[in-house]
């Protein structure tokens, strides 16, 4: 949670103009503070502010240290009482109060979360409270809340000696006001925060793909977290220009597609899944012009760019939700899901999925800071489809859709993988397919095969098979569940993954696949890359990056290890915003680039053969191995051609045989590189010795 200080008088209009271009705001979830001595940074999160500050305005916000320093030399210590005025549009203050803490007040005045300081009176529609002050030269801290619902959501703070004895607080606005006229102007805007968003319809444009035809059927994808990839401006955070500077690396590696984790303006200032403006780029990453340059530079290198799209929910700081939660009669109320009482549903791990608002409850399957959209509302769906066209018109090459398993909910035990999900995704697919050569894939961890069909999302990550791939590599025996997938009707549209940005998908694989001098890792990489029509790797996977030291998902999202520098990993010239991977000193790009036998060069060889043999992406896969075999053998065929893949899982060389289906036909070896000749016999078979933990690819001539 951020602590919002104050904005100097006269800046409010500038703040409102920029409020939606900002990132920040929003609160974090957690338990209530138990005592007045505990700052409320762990107090429950709820509806977030409509006025998170942009960097230009944030420069006018004075830090607590600076405030205290100013106050120390202030002209007077005569302020003994602070008067706080609070405005809600409904002017119903029943149950509302102030949580107070800090050295500006006596211990007896400080409150607990369960027993807030009450308002004394209502004057001209404002709730008023007078609070005694013992030290006006230090920060006075407050939160306005009703039970667990906070509005605004920030930890508010000011110094009486600097700002005066009168302060105004406005519903859903994380700024304090010290001028009645400006406070009244802000109050007049309650319920219309979304007026600053671009909600206009977006007409489709003819935007021809700059990529080779069929790119979307065989691309080699790298998942990239922009914030952790490369910093270009020395602020310790990755950005678009930093990623642009690394496109040559990706091209040389053989990557032909990148999936960008959320790059729209967000309130979390981290992963980006808390979207506050669907038509602006994350300001931490740069400008729209920077993003457009990224598209152009990637396309010039034959690399497509797909972006994350979050249709299930928004940030509670999104102005649409700010308006929806402001009053039951707001025009945006039905854009989200509200109930007058608490239905009492829970989601994963028994976590509550309904959260308290002022006089109602709203649905957020993940957390209170991520309220779910009402996707039964045609206006909401139309808005999302327009957003897709907005980015497609700019030239993006497709989308990865987040959390598609929970788009619709039908009851306490019917909130996951509902049938309505597929019709909505098919509608999104129609929008995407109206543009040339685009790609669509979904995150649906509980039932991925249901989404990997033409009547839903087309492609869906093969969640649940990460362990099967690792087991196949480490036990040197084809896992039965992996064999079942490779014989299924959706095998071509369910890309395998070893890991991604979420802990539920597992840790970075180096911890489990370091055996046999990384032979286990090479086998797992070969299976994932050669079996999948459109394989995905997570950034740093190609060098064996390890987790960071964080306890949360941050451990999977550490800065990219470009060099062995244990201070900045070549990621930035400053201090990285997050600590580095624990094996940065040994597993980094500089240490492996061009080094024969390195993991990086193994990935380069896998991508090279896929790029040289398109049939490995778009051919029909036929598995010839069975569960329990010490090999994975399959063919991909199409238009009279055959590519044969033989992966030896064992620790010793094996004589393996593949049935190519082409009798007496010349083949050449494409992996390992060298074009060694082979000829199938009269029954179409080729037998050869395959070294331990090695993949061989043969291509018919």
Characterise this structure:
The protein has 701 residues and is an alpha/beta fold. The chain contains 17 helices and 31 strands. The protein has a seven-stranded parallel sheet with strand order 22-21-20-16-13-12-23, with helices on one face. A hairpin with an 8-residue loop joins strand 14 (264-266) and strand 15. Helix 12 (466-475) crosses helix 14 (515-531). The longest helix has 17 residues, at 378-394. The radius of gyration is 28 Å and the shape is elongated. The chain starts with a strand and ends with a strand.
The averaged pLDDT comes out at: 90
Helix content: 10-25%
Strand order of the largest sheet: 22-21-20-16-13-12-23
DSSP helical segment count:
17
Class computed from helices, strands and strand pairing: alpha/beta
General shape:
elongated
Largest sheet: 7 strands, parallel
Name the poorly predicted regions.
1-75
The percent range for strand residues is: 15-25%
- How many runs of DSSP E, i.e. beta strands? 31
Keywords: Glycosidase, Hydrolase, Signal
InterPro entries: Carb-bd-like_fold, CBM41_pullulanase, GH, GH13_cat_dom, O16G_dom_2
GO molecular function, one term: hydrolase activity
Domain Glycosyl hydrolase family 13 catalytic: 223-578
How would you briefly describe this protein structure?
This protein is of the alpha/beta class and 701 residues long. It has 17 helices and 31 strands.
């Amino acid at each position: 949670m951020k602590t919002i200080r104050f904005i100097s008088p006269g800046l409010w209009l500038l703040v409102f103009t920029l409020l939606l271009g900002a990132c920040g705001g929003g609160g974090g979830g957690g338990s209530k503070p138990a005592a007045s001595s505990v700052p409320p940074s762990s107090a429950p999160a709820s509806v977030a502010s409509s006025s998170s500050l942009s960097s230009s305005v944030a420069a006018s916000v004075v830090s607590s240290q600076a405030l205290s320093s100013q106050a120390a030399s202030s002209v007077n210590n005569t302020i003994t009482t602070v008067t706080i005025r609070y405005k809600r549009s409904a002017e119903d203050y029943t149950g509302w109060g102030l949580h107070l803490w800090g050295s500006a007040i006596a211990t007896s005045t400080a409150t607990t979360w369960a027993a807030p300081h009450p308002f004394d009176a209502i004057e001209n529609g404002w709730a008023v409270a007078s609070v005694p002050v013992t030290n006006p030269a230090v920060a006075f801290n407050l939160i306005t809340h009703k039970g667990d619902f906070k509005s605004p959501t920030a930890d508010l703070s000011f110094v009486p000696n600097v700002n005066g004895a009168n302060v105004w607080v406005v519903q859903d606005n994380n700024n304090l006001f010290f001028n009645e006229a400006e406070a009244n102007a802000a109050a007049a805007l309650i319920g219309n925060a979304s007026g600053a968003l671009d909600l206009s319809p977006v007409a489709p444009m003819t935007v021809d793909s700059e990529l080779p035809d069929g790119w979307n059927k065989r691309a080699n994808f790298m998942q990239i977290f922009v914030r952790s990839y490369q910093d270009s401006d020395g602020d310790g955070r990755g950005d678009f220009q930093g990623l642009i500077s690394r496109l040559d690396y990706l091209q040389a590696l053989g990557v032909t597609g990148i999936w960008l984790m959320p790059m729209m303006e967000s309130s979390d200032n981290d992963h980006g899944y808390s979207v506050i403006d669907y038509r602006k780029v994350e300001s931490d990453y740069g400008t729209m012009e920077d993003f457009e340059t990224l598209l152009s530079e990637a396309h010039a290198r034959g690399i497509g760019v797909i972006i994350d799209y979050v249709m299930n929910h928004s940030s509670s700081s999104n102005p649409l939700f700010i308006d929806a939660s402001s009053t039951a009669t707001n025009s945006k109320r039905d854009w989200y899901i509200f109930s007058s009482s608490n239905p009492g549903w829970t989601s994963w791990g028994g976590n509550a999925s309904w959260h308290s608002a002022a006089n109602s409850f709203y649905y957020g399957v993940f957390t209170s800071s991520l309220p779910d959209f009402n996707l039964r509302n045609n206006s909401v769906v139309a808005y999302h489809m327009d957003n897709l066209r907005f980015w497609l018109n700019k030239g993006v090459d497709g989308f990865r859709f987040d959390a598609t398993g929970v788009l619709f909910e039908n009851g306490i035990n019917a909130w996951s993988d509902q049938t309505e999900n597929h019709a909505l995704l098919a509608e999104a697919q129609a929008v995407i397919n109206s543009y040339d050569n685009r790609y669509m894939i979904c995150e649906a961890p509980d039932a991925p095969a249901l989404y990997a069909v033409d009547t839903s999302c087309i492609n869906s990550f093969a969640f649940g098979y990460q362990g099967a791939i690792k087991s196949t590599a480490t036990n040197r025996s084809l896992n039965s569940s992996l064999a079942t997938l490779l014989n299924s009707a959706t095998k071509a549209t369910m890309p395998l993954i070893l890991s991604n940005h979420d802990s539920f998908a597992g840790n970075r694989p180096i911890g489990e696949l370091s055996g046999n001098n990384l032979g286990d890792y090479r086998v797992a990489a070969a299976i994932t890359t050669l079996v999948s029509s459109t394989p995905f790797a997570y950034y740093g996977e190609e060098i064996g990056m390890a987790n960071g030291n964080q306890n949360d998902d941050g451990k999977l999202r550490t800065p990219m290890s470009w060099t062995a520098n244990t201070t900045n990993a070549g990621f930035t010239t400053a201090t990285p915003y997050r600590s580095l991977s624990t094996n940065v000193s040994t597993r980094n790009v500089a240490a492996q680039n061009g080094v024969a036998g390195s993991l990086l060069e193994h990935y380069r060889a896998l991508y090279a053969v896929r790029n040289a043999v398109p049939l490995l992406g778009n051919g029909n896969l036929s598995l010839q191995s069975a569960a329990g075999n010490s090999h994975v053998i399959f063919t991909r065929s199409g238009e009279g051609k055959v590519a044969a893949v033989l992966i030896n899982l064992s620790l010793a060389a094996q004589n393996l045989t593949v049935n190519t289906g082409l009798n007496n036909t010349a083949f050449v070896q494409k992996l390992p590189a060298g074009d060694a000749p082979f000829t199938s016999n009269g029954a179409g078979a080729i037998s050869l010795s395959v070294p331990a933990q090695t993949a061989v690819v043969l291509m018919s001539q």
